[in-house]
Specification:
With about 110 residues, the chain is mostly helical. It has a single domain, classed as Arc Repressor Mutant, subunit A, CATH 1.10.10.10. About 50% of the residues lie in helices and about 10% in strands. Strands 1-3-2 form a 3-stranded antiparallel β-sheet.
Length: about 110
């Protein structure tokens, strides 16, 4: 992928708080083969869990999967690190490591 397309993909993925939560949760997994339960592992209590699940399944996870950042098994309700997660990992790490300097609602 060309650099410009990578940046567009990274920015699009990071453009929504729910997607940022999924990506940061994946970043924090102890093992790259681990998976998250969705919506349970990304629910922050600020939204109805059913609405969050609908948004994840119909919007956020398909976008992240298409970008290659996640592996998603909708039947099992599990999300793991995708083949192209390495493209976004440095940006996520930078943002996460400096989260104290970012607006409170970044994740």
């Amino acid at each position: 992928m060309q650099d410009e397309n990578v940046w567009q993909s990274v920015c699009r993925a990071l453009g929504d708080k729910t997607r940022r939560r999924v990506l940061v949760a994946l970043l924090e997994l102890p093992d790259a083969d681990d998976t998250l339960r969705v919506p349970e592992d990304v629910h922050e209590g600020d939204r109805d869990e059913r609405k969050l699940e609908t948004a994840l399944y119909h919007n956020h996870l398909p976008l992240l999967e298409q970008a290659g950042y996640v592996r998603w098994d909708p039947d099992a309700g599990r999300v793991g690190v995708g083949d192209d997660f390495g493209e976004i990992r440095p940006v996520l790490r930078l943002l996460h490591d400096n989260r104290a300097d970012l607006p409170d609602d970044w994740v």
